# Entry
Amino acid sequence: MLAQALILATAATLSTLQADVSPPNPWQKDVFTHDGLMFDISAPAGTIGLGSDNAFLGFGYLQVNGRLYGSFEPLQLITHPDGGHTVATGRMPTPEGLVVFRKIYVPWKPGRNHARFLDVIENPTDTTKDVVVQFYGFSGLASLAEMIVRSDEYVIISGSPNSSGSPPAFGFLFQRGLRFMPGRLADLIFYDAGLLSRAYLYVKVKPHERVSFVHFVVQGMPRAAAAHPSGRGAAAADDTTADDVLRQLVELSESPDLSNLEPDEQRSLWNFFIDTDVNMDGYVNVLDMIIVRNDLGKPPESALNPRSDVNHDVRINILDMIFVRNDLGWPF
# Structure
């Protein structure tokens, strides 16, 4: 029922979202990758409008406890020494006393055609807040677009073949370090009729702390221009845009692009983290071992900290403590 409620809430806000992006908007930043693909970031929601070749139809919407993120403060464009750009959005207070804002980073590196969304939820109050976070958007690849790849960490959406014969595609990398468990609402990934949604439940924000979510949205190059997965020359004749998207997703999964993030931003990441950093303080130390010890014998869903299941075998036991011990002293 809760999953249905989340999706219905998304559908209920669709008309509002369309109203937000349809009128001429003075607050928009078109950011290009090294390979010439575009991410058009617009206020008030800090979302991708159409992208290159109309890959999207409004993508990257954020809801916190059912409240759609939006800020009518002008977007700020930051240029980094490495050539990448960050679009920073304004701060939005919520009825629960939380503050939400986001930063969208687009690198300037050959073969890297992604936008990295950093969504920050701050809790300036004196009480712990439970939040439900939903990240979603709409495909612009026509009504027949479908999810052609689905893993524990990423998905690829592909449309019908275009004039070059290569089906256009884009990818969405939504986690690293969280176990995907079918049937658990905390791992809800949903795609239907152009709507792609990822929901996170059971998120706790401690007093005067923050949690952050990172999502990577990847565009692919057409077959004639796509870099070959081997990194050598142009793509082979049978390579498609989806192949290029998959290459990028695998690379990002193995080595997430956390360029130009501050240390405190990295430490607060909720869905991208080192498994053995159980308390997500940026270090693997004796505190993580204590947390696992306190949850010994419990299944993750009833543990004080579900991340105590370090090795993702759906049980918390001495093996998890061994994994933490072997990583002691490891910084994020």
In short: The chain is about 15% helix and 30% strand. The CA atoms of residues 56 and 140 lie 4 Å apart. The chain has two domains: 2-267, 274-332. The longest strand covers residues 129-139.
